[in-house]
């Protein structure tokens, strides 16, 4: 009788872990860590945006951005990748946002600030860029790929 109770308890415990594991798996989301840096950061020349990982599975993706600048505001805009240059307003030194498809944005991160946005990425390539004046053309962008 005790042996049956112990087996039943172990089986119940294993089932509970299995259910919890399924719940945790269903709620897990992919996270891309985006770092925004500029010349105010020691050892950085110009503008720099990096994404880790830069290859993810298609689906729900949370982009967590960190502005490491000491004195500049940065942002992250997500748009489908194109081999063409983005439409640009030379006078304002910015991408013309009304002429591109924006999937999500972490807007106006002050120096040292963090922000996030959740987007749904179909399989394909995506451009993440900063659209503060002159930042995109200065190299503050990166590419990420969503696989199947």
Could you explain the architecture of this structure?
- The protein has 148 residues and is α+β, with helices and mostly antiparallel strands.
- The chain contains 1 helix and 11 strands.
- Strand 6 (88-89) and strand 7 (94-95) form a beta hairpin.
- It is globular.
- The termini are far apart.
List the topology elements.
Blueprint: H1 2-27, E1 30-37, E2 48-52, E3 55-57, E4 59-67, E5 74-80, E6 88-89, E7 94-95, E8 104-109, E9 114-121, E10 124-129, E11 141-147
Parallel strand pairs: 1-4, 3-11
Antiparallel strand pairs: 1-2, 4-9, 5-8, 5-10, 6-7, 10-11
Q: Which keywords apply here?
A:
4-stranded mixed beta sheet; 148 residues; 1 helix; Immunoglobulin-like
Mean pLDDT: 87
What's the CATH C level? Answer: Mainly Beta
Quaternary organization = single chain
Helix/strand/pairing category: alpha+beta
Q: Which architecture would the CATH scheme give at its second level?
A: Sandwich
> What spatial form do the alpha-carbon principal axes imply?
globular
Percentage of residues assigned to helices: 10-25%
- What is the rounded Rg? 21 Å
Low-confidence stretches: 8-27
**Could you give the count of β-strands?**
11
Q: How far apart lie the N and C ends?
A: 51 Å
Beta-strand content bin: 35-45%
| Physical arrangement of strands within the biggest beta sheet | 3-11-10-5-8
User: Quick one: CATH superfamily?
Assistant: Cupredoxins -  blue copper proteins
Q: How many domains, as an integer?
A: 1
Give the biggest sheet.
Answer: 5 strands, mixed
Determine the number of helices (DSSP H or I, runs of at least 4 residues). 1
CATH overall fold name: Immunoglobulin-like
The ordered string of helix (H) and strand (E) elements is: HEEEEEEEEEEE
